[in-house]
Amino acid sequence: MKYLCLVYFEGSKLAALSPDEKRTLDRDSLAYDEELAASGNFIAADALQSVDQAATVRVRDGRMSVTDGPFAETKEQLGGFILIEARDMNEAIRLAAGIPLARLGSIEVRSIVKIDV
After folding, report:
1. Largest CA distance in the chain
2. Which fold has domain 2-48+76-111?
3. pLDDT digit string (tens) for 91-110?
């Protein structure tokens, strides 16, 4: 089964890292992607630009509206994702726990639903 690991963290915590700490986190993150690839669990991963570079699109009654960034009542924002292959939710959770940014924020694990039409 496929699982999407949504990586959430507080931008202020990431910004507070020293350049060396940031490089280490980046190195650890890329190394973990390689570890997942070597074990056959990796499908795709990417980081996202800051929420101040985002837009939210809604369509209501045929009319489109666009607002800057996402509206959230939380300090944690979606910062990236890792799409993995796992036997079941328990394995997906175990793999998500290895994501280095889990030490700064949280990882939401969701199974992918295949839609047949």
Report:
1. 50
2. Alpha-Beta Plaits (3.30.70)
3. 999 999 999 999 999 999 99
Q: What is the pLDDT of residue 107?
A: 97
Residue 61: left if φ>0, alpha if ψ -120 to 50, beta else—which one?
left
What proportions of the chain, in percent to the nearest 5, are helix, strand and coil?
35, 35, 30
Question: Which letter, b or e, does each residue of 59-91 get, where b requires 16 or more Cβ atoms within 10 Å of its Cβ?
Answer: eeeeeeeeeeeeeeeeeebbbbbbbbbbeeeee
This prediction's pTM: 0.88
Show me where the domains of the chain are located. 2-48+76-111
Per-residue pLDDT of the chain (117 residues; tens, 9 = 90+): 999 999 999 888 989 999 999 999 999 999 999 999 999 999 999 999 888 888 889 999 999 999 887 766 677 889 999 999 999 999 999 999 999 999 999 999 999 998 998
For residues 15 and 22, what is the distance between their CA atoms, to the nearest angstrom?
9
